[in-house]
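Fold Annotation — chain and its backbone
Next Lines — sequence and tokenised fold

***
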Amino acid sequence: MIIDSHLHLPVDPPDFPAKKQALLGEMKRNGVDRGIVIADSEPESVIGSVRDCAELFRGDAVIKVIAGISPLINFEEQLCYCRKLLENGDIIGMKLYTGHEPFYCIESSLLPVYDLAAEFRVPVLFHTGWDNNQYAAPEKMRKLGAKRRENTFIYCHCFYPDTENCFEVLRECENVYFDTSSLADDADKWGQIRKSLEKAIREMPGRFIFGSDFGSCSQSEHLRFAESLDITAEQRELFMHGNAENVYKL
């Protein structure tokens, strides 16, 4: 069983039904059984707004949806809509695009998102790493995780490319999980990232979730990278699907 927990609709197909078919086709080619599509936080987006993605995959047995949400765009309206989607079972979490948008994960303005997620017992995801990485830096996430123990947080991209620092700083934050999407984006960095990831998976096997960031990155390359990891069969089962089933209640 393989669950890709970090997918986006592809950019190139001309409409949303075509994007859906392209995504499902890629999953079939790569032997991926189930997936989680993350919507944009923008109300109009080529990769799909929350409304676009929720409607496109409503009732789908293979694909579940994460809502993108922003404190900078019609925030109260977004919160109300996410509540409705959560009540109807149309989304299984919410993502904050820290770094893509200029707000910090520890800002008090985000408390309504954390409260809503805690109420419905769904995770909150964060974009991390690359440029503008200060907005959800590991030290800030450690403070947030300690302060909001009632929440489950998912740290997407593991502060790429500084994965070693990420895992060390967040080691004791048991309510913070690691989504490994984008880690295979640059083959020249595979050696360095593989070493830190293997060590962290062995030490924290219940906290790693496979994702590819398809739509931006290659799903097949991420699967090849995952296959190359020197971990036990049990750790691999957790990584490739078991932890996602637990965190997202699939």
About this structure: The chain is about 40% helix and 15% strand.
